[in-house]
Structure formats: C-alpha cells, structure tokens
C-alpha cells in the first residue's frame, strides 16, 4: 500500500490531506468524523479515545481511500457512504433518490408535534427514499402509512429503509398525475416534499447536487412551479377526510402563491412555518367540507 496508515490518527490525517482543498475546516472535521465512525463502526467519542492505539486494518484503509477518491469527484458524502441519518432513522440512499435534508426533518418534526399519538391513515406522496414515511411510522406506531412514488427503484429503496428501521409502511409505485383515487384509501393526513426548485434556480445550486442528485425529483418549470401541489390537492379532493390536513415542504419563494393555491381549494387554518434559516418552508392547511 502506497501510504503508511496504521492508526485512526493516521487515517484522520490522511483524510485531511486528501480533502482539505474541497472543504472548509468545519466541514472537513465533520466529514472526517462521519467517515471514521462509519468505517470503524463506533461513535465519534469512542474513536477519539482510541486514535493512537486502534489499528486500521487493510480493508478499512482501502475503504477510506475509496471514500476519498469518490468525494474528490464531488460525489455527496451520503452517496459515498450509502446511507444517512434522518430523524434518528438510518436511511439508505443512492443516486436514484434525493438525499434527505434538514428542512425535511423539520417537516417531520412539525407533523409529529402537532399530531401526538396519531392512529389514523397517512399518505406520503413522492416518497423517494421513504425517509418521511419511515420516520413517521416509527413515531406513529399505531398509524397506517402509505408512500407512493413514480420510480420503481425508489420504491425498492424505500422498502429496504422500512425494514432497516422496523417501520410498517405500504409503498406503492404510482404516477401522481394518472392515479385513480379509488386506488388509495381515504386518509387523515397527506404529506409531500415534491419537486419545487424552478429551472431558473439551477444556477444557484451546488455542483454536487446538480451533478449527482436526480433532477426529476428537484426541478419544476418556471411557468408552472406549483404543478405537483395542484395535482396533490386535486387528488386530496377524493381521498382526504373532512378535518384532515396537508403538510408540504415548499420553495422559500412560493409562500404566498402556495397560500393562494390552498385558499382556492377551500382549505382553512393555513399556516406557513419558517425553517431554521428563517425561510418559508412548510405549508399546512386543513380541509373542511
């Protein structure tokens, strides 16, 4: 092996040397901790106590070197590792699904806080990796949760995530724009984090997102940026129970248009919640007949 890596300390220094030009100090420290914790299957605190004596081993060294090679191409860390943490769940990800974001955790957190002890039916539209449905199932063990997505590979990935986290979720392959409402049982909550980035906003996005994450799960046309929300609300006419609620993750620039859209569908108690960065991110409305 060309490099002489013996201990965790050696590996930490190696990662720093390989990736220091790509990340700032804080990001690099975080990435290093995540890589070592993953490769050595121990917590950050555990490995920090063993940096001098814990031996790396040939296979672990090879893995670290491969991770660094992939990261240097711009590939996101979550795709390199193959999984990520989301609301205390382990979520496997690949290039066919979006990497779960903190903003989506905030969406899940709001639903859990506002619906403590929920036992009804819930539908996650555009489930992707299944992170929302899985996290809600873990926290609402008496509920009945269904996740739908147009991508067959995403559905397979979501089913694996349900198994890993002992979550009970029914995942179905379905096209939102063609689905027959009779195929979905009536629900009390609909949640969705659909594509909402306008095509004109691509220029402001990071290269690793544009280069690796699925564009069909990200972008919408500038002339109809609410296309998915409108389709969801049309479906909700038939499947959302009176008194039920919709929860959406939204584009920060679309707060007012989304409010108007919900009003046009006669929703009440409409509320916009800002994310941790103070941006309009979560939209909720309640349905009354």
Question: Tags for this entry?
Answer:
40% helix; two-stranded antiparallel sheet; 2 domains; 289 residues; Rossmann fold
Describe the structure.
This protein is an alpha/beta fold. It has two domains: 66 residues; 205 residues, Rossmann fold (3-Layer(aba) Sandwich), CATH 3.40.50. The protein contains eleven helices and eleven strands. A seven-stranded mixed sheet has the order 5-4-3-6-9-11-10, with helices on both faces. A hairpin with a 5-residue loop joins strand 10 and strand 11. Helix 1 packs across helix 2 and helix 2 packs antiparallel against helix 4. It starts with 7 loop residues before the first helix and ends with a strand. The model has no long low-confidence stretch (mean pLDDT 92).
Q: What's the number of structural domains?
A: 2
What is the tally of beta strands?
Answer: 11
Please give the largest β-sheet.
7 strands, mixed
Ends distance: 70 Å
Q: Helix share of residues?
A: 40-55%
Just give the CATH class of the largest domain.
Alpha Beta
Strand order of the largest sheet: 5-4-3-6-9-11-10
Please identify, by name, the CATH architecture of the largest domain: 3-Layer(aba) Sandwich
CATH homologous superfamily identity of the largest domain: Vaccinia Virus protein VP39
Secondary-structure element sequence?
Answer: HHHHHEEHEHEHEEEHEHEHEE
The DSSP helix count reads: 11
Quaternary state reads single chain
Return the average pLDDT rounded to an integer: 92
What share of residues are in beta strands?
Answer: 15-25%
Rg calc: 21 Å
* Class by alpha and beta content: alpha/beta
Any low-confidence stretches, pLDDT <50, length ≥5? Answer: none
Gross morphology: elongated
CATH topology of the largest domain: Rossmann fold
